[in-house]
Amino acid sequence: MSRLAHLKKEILAKGSPAKAKASARFFKTGKGQYGEGDVFVGLTVPELRTITKNYRDAPLRELTLLLRCREHEFRLAALIILAEQFERAAEAEQKKIYEMYLANTKWINNWDLVDSSAPNIVGAYLHTRAKTPLFTLAKSPSLWERRIAMVATYAFIQKGEAETALRVAEILIHDTHDLMHKAVGWMLREVGKKSSLKAELQFLDTHAATMPRTALRYAIERLSPAQRAMYMKKALIRE
Fold first, then answer.
1. pLDDT of residue 3
2. pTM of this prediction?
3. Which of 71, 98, 209, 234 can pair with 125 through a Cys bridge, CB separation 3.0 to 4.6 Å?
4. 127 pLDDT tier (thresholds 50, 70, 90)
């Protein structure tokens, strides 16, 4: 039995039908919902991380196959391992992981899959490189590629660099999907928290009156009560 088969067997053995059913509801897998058709085994993320610790050296070829599996936890396991491999890899291997990731975004198709991997792989790789791929992803018809573009900027925000996040947010500020409203607001909040409160406030001064309400609420969560009230008032004026 291959190591990939062993990993799948361990995940399936830990699965819980009750947890799988709950996850299917939580990740909106019903007809017409964003996670339509996704299949769950029923593991918690800590359980999955415990299992993947024994497969940190899995070859990229096998991880690609795992990422293309139907089961959500198989795909998440692949991304957890890839993110860990990327962190300790040499530059040439990091490039291979990054390129494999972008070639397989079709299977990185729920918000937890994106959020657990985009900053650690895409953001980490592009931190010292041209940010053009992010602007391309931000204009993609794929919800998940757009979310990858936004959430990947968290890697820059953590290092004190706000400009890229704000540029991507400006592209996505009027996205029609609620999951993007949340992602944009979340990254704006993190800009203010970890990088530059001044930059966040300048962005909000320009966009608060027209940006989606959900994005605004996320963005202003850590501001003072007076600041939150001011920006919410700007939003109310348009109604």
1. 81
2. 0.96
3. 98
4. very high
Tell me the pLDDT tens digit for each residue of 56-99: 999 999 999 999 999 999 999 999 999 999 999 999 999 999 99
pLDDT at 4: 84
CA distance 82 to 97: 7
